[in-house]
Amino acid sequence: MSRAPKRRVFGRVFVHAALPGTASGIAQARMAELAAAGRLRVAAYPAHAGFDGATAQPGNADALAKLLLQPVDESLLEEQLRHALALLLDGERSGPERNLLLSSELFFFAAPASARVLRRVLSDVATEATQLVFVRPLRDWTHSIHAQMVVGHGLDSDYGLAWLDDYFVSFADRFRDLVGWDMETVALPDVRSGLLRGVLEAIGEDPRLADEVADERECRGLLDEELALARMVNARFHDPHVTTAVTAALRTRWPDDAPGQPSAQAAAAFASFAESFTARIAGIPGDGMARIRALLLLPDPGPVAAGPLPMAPARLMEAFSLVLDVLAREGVEQARAATRFKTLSAYAAQRLEPSHAFFDPIHYLLQHDDLLAANVDPWAHYFDHGRPEGRPSALARKDLK
After folding, report:
1. What are the residue ranges of helices labelled H in 59-160?
2. Is the residue at 159 inside a domain?
3. Tens of pLDDT, residues 141-196
4. Whose CA, among 100, 176, 198, 400, lies 20 to 30 Å from 27?
5. CA torsion, points 375, 378, 379, 382, in degrees to nearest 10?
6. Which residues contact 261 (CB under 8 A, 6 or more apart)?
7. Is 256 domain-assigned?
8. CA dist list (Å): 278 to 168, 186, 281
9. 286 shares a domain with 184
10. Is residue 1 part of a domain?
């Protein structure tokens, strides 16, 4: 028989529907640290074990949110949610003066009918419920998700219209579902390096508590060529652990570099995607969605500095050597694949410069590693075959600002 939750009273429950690619995992981990240290005075952030006995990672409400992903019989779902909530709140101090924070990225993907059942269950533990959504400008958000997918999930596609349309095709529906929950939706700007501070302020805690835990800033973004290297590693080894090690080594070696403005190719892809995505979300009703839409479509100022010219030939050589060192350290023994990295390093050693036609051979080989594997002449291939085939040619390095 299911364990029924004791009736507990909180002033308000905040359901943080964490959007993918917004560094929510960092904020969730820091919230858990503050809760464990007893530093939260107004809000409760329980971080108990989930159904399988493992600590919920990274959101404290992942076990709850997982139940909402597929439509099920409402009576059964309600029983499961009450049981999960009882486990989560077991031993948690409550009271009408305290708030409760439930956070999970999985809430973003919840079926709306299931979410409304959750709202009924939450009425047993709080007098009011608010849904929190922290939103980044669309361009910044899409770039963040792409980098996250490359580094942590084995993606080997470049940031282009095909990937954007494919990945985000369902997100308009997700937003429509999200604002269909039976609770108030509060949308707030997700400022880089400030999500934890924003969450604390939203739930009634002192935002200065963010200063008491480790710096929540994300590690620096990857340069275009570094992402290209990571995609090549994904394509060859299909092991996100190896890719994570490679990108960590690149960031450690050059910790202060910042990505420059996107290439013309990436900017054009985003502009086309943004036009269609904006049209898809234009008709979603509600004040909450109006605020989400306004934040998504804010002009994105982009990086504060362009950083150094990405990947000059000498640095390319060092980067490839570093990648090979990581592959060796990780025990990767695919010699033929490693040789292709050495081949590209050899191209870099030749100090191949962009042509007068703004064709960059190094960028071309980074984008099309099948050509690298075939050891073809990049100029000859592009002008004889690549251009007729519609293969993109990156802007020349001297034109990247």
Report:
1. 62-66, 74-89, 112-122, 138-153
2. no
3. 999 899 999 998 989 888 999 999 999 988 999 999 998 888 899 999 886 557 89
4. 176
5. 110
6. 267, 302, 303, 306, 400, 401
7. yes
8. 12, 20, 5
9. no
10. no
Please tell me whether residues 276 and 391 are part of one structural domain: yes
User: With the C-alpha atoms ordered 309, 315, 319, 320, is the resulting torsion angle positive or negative?
Assistant: positive
β-bridge pairing 10-17 and 43-44: unpaired
As a whole number of angstroms, the distance between CA 34 and CA 38 comes to 6
The answer to whether residue 163 sits within a structural domain is no
129 has which bridge partners?
Answer: 13
- More reliable by pLDDT, 104 or 327: 104
Instruction: Show Cβ contacts of residue 304 under 8 Å, excluding neighbours closer than 6 positions.
Output: 258
Task: Say yes or no: 258 and 205 in one domain.
Answer: no
Strand partners, 299: none
User: Do 103 and 196 share a domain, yes or no?
Assistant: yes
The two structure tokens encoding residue 111: 């079926």
Contact in structure between 145 and 21 (CB atoms under 8 Å): yes
Give, as one character, the DSSP assignment of residue 93: -
pTM comes to 0.76
Is residue 27 within 8 A of residue 216, CB to CB? The reply is yes
Other beta carbons within 10 angstroms of residue 390's beta carbon come to 6
Per residue, what are the HEC states of 21-67?
CCCHHHHHHHHHHHHHCCCCCCEECCCCECCCCCECCCCCCHHHHHC
Overall domain count for the chain? 2
Cβ contact 20:171 at 8 Å = no
Looking at residue 257, its pLDDT comes to 77
Pairwise CA distance, residues 27 & 196, whole Å = 5
